[in-house]
Amino acid sequence: MAAKFSVxxxxxxxxxxxxxxxxxxxxxxxxxxxSAGYKRxxxxxxxxxxxxxxxxxxSTDIVQKEMFTFEDQGGRSLTLxxxxxxxxxxxxxxxxxxxxxxxxxxxxWGPFFRHERPQAxxxxxxxxxxxxxxxxxxxxxxxxxxxxxxxxxxxLAVPGVELRLGSLGSIAxxxxxxxxxxxxxxxxxxxxxxxxxxxxxxxxxxxxxSDHEGTREVMRGAPTILDRLSDSDAEHFEAVKRLLDEAxxxxxxxxxxxxxxxxxxxxxxxxxSNALGAQSALGGGGxxxxxxxELGGPEVPAIGWAAGIERILLALxxxxxxxxxxxxxxxxxxQRERALVVATEARRAxxxxxxxxxxxxxxxxxxxxxxxxxxxxxxxxxxxxxxxxDMRTGADRPLDLDDIVGEIERERxxxxx
Length: 417
Ligand code: AMP
Description:
Elements (H helix, E strand, L loop, with lengths): L15 H19 L4 E2 L5 E3 H8 L4 H6 L2 E3 L5 E4 L4 H10 L9 E10 L11 E10 L4 H17 L5 E7 L3 H17 L6 H5 L14 H8 L10 H16 L5 E2 L11 E9 L7 E7 L3 H4 L7 E7 H8 L10 E4 L5 H13 L4 E3 L6 H11 L3 E5 L5 E5 L5 E4 L4 H11 L3
Helix pairs in contact: 2-4, 5-9
The chain binds adenosine monophosphate.
């Protein structure tokens, strides 16, 4: 029978077969970030639209065309979060976190929403891991954040990873540089694509991203921000590069690296994988020294990044095996209720155990035990005794039900597991 309903375009179900690979990423991230002093934060899935308009930037593609915005019953404009940084900074300000010892180091994991054209690696609901260090301008924080994402991708064995690194300078230099770039683009206006020309004043940096041949030619001669950094920004950038070198993190300098968000200052970076197609970005971020103030907080510098879970999975393209069950319990009719008692006791003692809940015959239960991938079957008999069967060899021996977990552990020890 054909399904009557299906998920909205650009969204997807995470089915049980996909969840082990996702859990592996989550657990690796949680372990790495918590052991580096980052604490997990969760913010709402929707917020006042203005948080994103201000926090992402009104000239960005995200705010101009990709937000899922709706009015609630009280006429307030709300938006499904398109990214995490603005929400985390809103939370930092709302909860007075500037009074805590700085920096405040946070990370999060969850769904995000953008109205984009769906394709491989690009969805309308996708998932990100996000990491932020708010309240320090030290290049150590930039390097730490980049190293943590680098090491996570390495631990997960994501193939073909490359790190592109740049600096956008501080806001004052960026403004001066922007004017210079606008003037340069105006002087070559006729050669640019219509889209770039229409947005020269709004977002001249995006011209570096264009794949229009005429525009690319113009951009080859364009001034870059790396040539215009102030001494202190250049020094900051040198320190970040030195720290990455010392940590053995390779990078490619990219003076034209343009991140999609308006608020970046100084360091910007992006990790890509050559195992991905057109959507090659695994994750990226940078420093956003003006954002907390933009959201009504104190002048507080910060650095952060976001990485896409679906992109990481796509680059990995390898199924993750779930840990097998220790045992599947097979019971005759008279022992059905006892089977749940045995399973519960074994589970409470730490074993992974399953049993039939659908009234199958013993033969059906054996089949189910086989299908479940369990290492063993615990077979109960009408007389209250039990046997332990090795599902690989079929060998069968008596089992003391009070010691089911001890028995499994002894077997594991013998097998050297
Ligand atoms: P951004 O917040 O745009 O810097 O995105 C950070 C990362 O999230 C990107 O590098 C992608 O890995 C992932 N990402 C962004 N947008 C999408 C999307 N629409 N679908 C899937 N992943 C995405």
